[in-house]
Amino acid sequence: MTIQNVAVVGAGVMGRGIAYASALAGFHTTLVDVSEKQRRDAYSFAEHTTQKGIKKEKITESQAKDLLANLTTSSDLESTVNKADLLIEAVPEKRELKKKILETADQHAPEHTLFASNTSTISPTELGSYTNRASQVVVMHFFNPVHRMPLVEIVKGLETSEQTVDLIKFSSEKMGKETVEVNEFPGFVTSRISALVGNEAFHMLQEGVATAEDIDKAVRLGLNYPMGPLELGDLVGLDARLNNLKYLHETLGEKYRPAPLLEQLVQAGRLGKKSGRGIYKYNA
Ligand SMILES: NC(=O)c1ccc[n+]([C@@H]2O[C@H](COP(=O)([O-])OP(=O)(O)OC[C@H]3O[C@@H](n4cnc5c(N)ncnc54)[C@H](O)[C@@H]3O)[C@@H](O)[C@H]2O)c1
């Protein structure tokens, strides 16, 4: 089996980045979203990102032209999955919504179509159970911003076949990504590590170990992280960080209990960059 047609469902932060990487890889890519504005913004994002890519000599003019020719948008999930070899779901992290998308896609996609989800937390075994093709369902966890972040975590469910994993690995590599294979555990590899490091930084700030600036600087320069844990928290959103920790606390235990300071900042509406203030202040 070969992958030619890719359907990406959800044209938000992640879906538009995934569709960009997929179209650049040469896959005929259709980005499906219920919102017309999101579809338009996602196509503009591709146009803008190709222009920036040309200026920085990351892609050629001809690659940019091919990318835009490979990318279309649609509001119609059924007719799009009907032609897809691979579906990548990137709708919001709501179980019922993902279930509905997968059930509908399962009814309308050809038998061979693979289903991948970009979920941050939901089990691939559970996602597979919403379909009659559990062996072809997998988590394909991209990172934000997708066009710059080089990793895809491939998370296998109980029934996911080796053939599915191989094809997802091949597709990810064609999109210019490195892959790691992960067995099904809450938080995969990256969310688990990142949640713990981030939470520890909040505890340190609360205990008065150092200022926020110095905690971030110490981790950047002393541990060689590209960003400090507190500035990263502001970038991802403190609410998203808190939800992730709550989920890991529920599933993996006490060491993931969210730091009280993090809960307090979220209660105060200080959600990070997107709300203008988190640990740090941002201009509008
Ligand atoms: N944002 C991140 O940094 C990040 C990183 C890794 C994984 N994820 C995961 O990726 C997924 C998407 O996250 P996001 O941040 O891109 O969300 P987002 O809110 O930016 O985008 C979701 C998109 O889905 C669309 N949508 C909603 N219902 C739909 C439907 N029925 N059919 C088609 N489209 C529909 C929305 O209009 C929106 O454009 C989530 O599962 C999230 O946990 C997010």
Bin the helical content: 40-55%
β-strand percent reads: 5-15%
Strand order of the largest sheet: 3-2-1-4-5-6-7-8
- The succession of helices and strands, N to C, reads EHEHHEHEHEHEEHEHHHHH
Distance between the termini: 49 Å
Q: What is the tally of helical segments? A: 12
Rg from C-alpha positions?
20 Å
Shape: globular
Oligomer: single chain
Average pLDDT, rounded to a whole number, is 96
Overall number of strands:
8
Largest sheet: 8 strands, mixed
* Bound ions, cofactors and other small molecules, one mention each: nicotinamide-adenine-dinucleotide
Low-confidence residue ranges: none
* Strand-pairing-aware structural class: alpha/beta
Domain 3-hydroxyacyl-CoA dehydrogenase C-terminal: 187-282
Domain 3-hydroxyacyl-CoA dehydrogenase NAD binding: 5-184
Pfam families: 3HCDH, 3HCDH_N
Pathway: Lipid metabolism; butanoate metabolism
Key phrases:
single chain; 3-hydroxyacyl-CoA dehydrogenase; 3-OHacyl-CoA_DH; 50% helix; 284 residues; oxidoreductase; alpha/beta; binds nicotinamide-adenine-dinucleotide; 12 helices; 3-OHacyl-CoA_DH_NAD-bd; 8-stranded mixed β-sheet
